[in-house]
């Protein structure tokens, strides 16, 4: 049984903090390097964005340009953009999940 009044080893605690900080930074670099693609419901619009949140492309099917007016097309683009942001958030959360779980165990 461990002594509840024992003083923790500060060097050990600092080493754990450094290790976790390095892991978070490594994961952050991985997330920033990710590339995510998402689509509107009927695939009229495809967006690509990086882990840092910057969009690198928005591709619109030429048939959609002929078929929809500007207002409807803008809604379809927003749908794809929001799907991309959601997908990026989910992927980022999945990458950080092990670190968050480890922190809860401490």
From TrEMBL:
Cited Pfam families: YbaB_DNA_bd
Question: Cross-referenced SUPFAM superfamilies, in alphabetical order?
Answer: YbaB-like
Coiled-coil features, chain-numbered ranges: 10-37
| Record InterPro entries | YbaB-like_sf (IPR036894), YbaB/EbfC (IPR004401)
Q: Tell me, what is one Gene Ontology molecular-function annotation carried by this entry?
A: DNA binding
Keyword vocabulary terms for this entry: Coiled coil, DNA-binding
| Entries under PANTHER family matching the protein | NUCLEOID-ASSOCIATED PROTEIN YBAB
Q: What is this protein called?
A: Nucleoid-associated protein
**What is the originating organism of this protein?**
Amycolatopsis vancoresmycina DSM 44592
């Amino acid at each position: 049984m461990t002594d509840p009044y024992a003083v923790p080893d500060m060097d050990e605690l600092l080493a754990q903090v450094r290790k976790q900080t390095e892991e978070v930074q490594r994961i952050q670099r991985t997330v920033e390097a990710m590339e995510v693609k998402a689509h509107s419901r009927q695939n009229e619009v495809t967006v690509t964005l990086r882990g840092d949140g910057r969009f690198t492309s928005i591709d619109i099917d030429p048939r959609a340009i002929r078929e929809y007016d500007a207002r409807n097309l803008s809604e379809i683009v927003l749908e794809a953009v929001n799907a991309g942001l959601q997908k990026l958030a989910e992927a980022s959360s999945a990458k950080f999940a092990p670190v968050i779980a480890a922190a809860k165990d401490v």
